[in-house]
Design brief:
Layout (H helix, E strand, L loop, with lengths): L8 H14 L4 H18 L6 H26 L1
Length: 77
Amino acid sequence: MLYRHGRDRQRILDLFAVIDWMMRLPDPLEQALWNEIQTIEGERKMAYVTSVERLANQRGQQEGEEKGRFEGEARAR
């Protein structure tokens, strides 16, 4: 409903992250929720990414940049 009522995407993701942190759904309900999220996001072309996933992506990007810099410096020498 939050997606459908035009709520801010970041606030929705933050709420999902809090709910996910507070409780774990039984597997059948978790799968049903995931299916519903995919359906809604398919309609709106938005991907659900938790804050943990965003942090992991940022760290991976930083590590890649550091590795690239290190390799570039090694080649320059």
